[in-house]
Amino acid sequence: MLFFKKDEAYRVGFVASKKIGNAVHRNRAKRLLRAHFIENIDLISSGSYILVAKPDLLNQNFSEIKKIYLHALKKCAALT
Question: Residue 59, Cα to own-chain centre: how many angstroms?
Answer without folding.
Answer: 15
